[in-house]
Automatic annotation (TrEMBL):
It comes from the Bacteria. GO terms for biological process: demethylation. Keywords: Dioxygenase, Oxidoreductase. The keyword Oxidoreductase applies. Residues 90-182 form the Fe2OG dioxygenase domain. This is Alpha-ketoglutarate-dependent dioxygenase AlkB. One of its GO terms (molecular function) is dioxygenase activity.
Amino acid sequence: MRGVHERPAGLTYQPELIDDDEERSLLTALDALDFHDVRMHGQIARRTVRHFGFDYDYGSFQLTETEALPVALHWVRDRCANLAGLAPEALAQALVTRYPPGSVIGWHRDAPTFGPTVVGLSLGSACLLRFQRGSGKDRRVYELELAPRSGYVLTGAARSSWQHSIPPVPQLRYSLTFRTLRGARAGSDSLAG
């Protein structure tokens, strides 16, 4: 990537957040989920998703309550919350993403409706997590290889000022992404219409 290499402030990386046996068990559980298409700008992405806690509409950018995180996945949320230094309940939204070989996710920042902390767990195939901010001679870039079973946290500038993307994955990959919510939603049990 072209630009000045700079590690984003607020990026934490933890290899081996879970062990091999935990990953195998988790992949079996994730394989059994019913995934949904992602439609953005009239196009259907190759990756598929499943939301827990709050569903996110990629067209309207709105959150609506949906089914709770399955009890079988609470230990993963607990581990990710511990990595981020948060109470597990603070991670109110969970996104499970299935990336078939060749899948990508383009440059973006997680929607502003989500709060200041994003925590991820990478499973299956390794991948690159790329970062960028600025343009031209002011462009800053960074790449981090996410190994299977590794976790990461985006806070501060890494969450708010940098975009991130994932180039094509070589093999099947899953990610679990846990997010805090912004404002009044963060402490409420339900959303007002």
